[in-house]
Write a structure and sequence with these properties.
Length: about 230
């Protein structure tokens, strides 16, 4: 278990997640709709502005099921975050990333979004970016790579492994690997003919529109929710 001072620093980082303000924003990006929604996985741009509650009601009516397994899958290159009901994508959101969107996060300050299997480890209603869902980074893979590179100790790796095994707390946040990664609001993407205009501006977090993060926070996300972040 993390020491009390380390735990306090980690909780403070999550409470103040991204409160240093936006990173230096990149040039606006035009994202073709066919790139975000290639049509090979069941995701549809039509769900972007449909209420999640209506989509879930339609799924329940179609399947006859009342309960379902929840998970989030993020496709970084597609700038897309999908919500699942069992094996079906029920809704998609567009996300804005940081100025270094390509590649896995490796260290504090690299402005990259981590990849791999994480989970929701904190929920913060007091974020300056409307809402904040803390994600369990570092992952075990990131911690192992950090040990191999000499960035963190074996003790930190053990704390990361324990947090991911228990799934009831965040791993250490105040290490050289970085921390306070999550999903928050304040994105401002816009529709254009044939696609969308976005801007990558976070420190590595996943930014949704305010109305989207409010919907996700209040109507779907729960502690321990699996989150898979993929490069493509």
């Amino acid at each position: 278990m993390a020491s009390p001072p380390a735990l306090a620093r980690g909780l403070a980082l999550l409470a103040l997640a991204c409160l240093t303000g936006p990173a230096a924003a990149s040039t606006p990006l035009f994202l073709p709709e066919r790139q975000a929604f290639p049509g090979d996985d069941g995701a549809s741009a039509a769900t972007l502005d449909q209420p999640l509650s209506e989509l879930l009601d339609a799924w329940r009516a179609r399947t006859g099921r009342r309960t379902f397994r929840r998970r989030i899958v993020v496709h970084k290159a597609r700038r897309r975050l999908d919500l699942y009901a069992d094996e079906s994508i029920v809704k998609s959101y567009l996300v804005e990333l940081g100025p270094s969107p390509v590649g896995d996060k490796q260290r504090q300050g690299d402005m990259r979004t981590p990849e791999g299997d994480l989970f929701v480890c904190a929920k913060n209603r007091a974020s300056r970016f409307t809402r904040f869902l803390g994600l369990a980074y570092p992952t075990p893979a990131a911690a192992a790579a950090g040990v191999a590179a000499g960035r963190v100790s074996r003790a930190v790796e053990r704390q990361v492994l324990a947090a991911h095994a228990a799934r009831d707390r965040c791993p250490p946040q105040a290490t050289a690997l970085g921390g306070a990664v999550g999903i928050h609001g304040s994105a401002a993407w816009e529709r254009r003919p044939g696609g969308f205009v976005l801007q990558d501006w976070t420190w590595g977090c996943l930014a949704l529109r305010d109305r989207d993060v409010l919907e996700l926070f209040g109507g779907y996300a729960e502690m321990g929710l699996p989150v898979r972040i993929e490069a493509e």
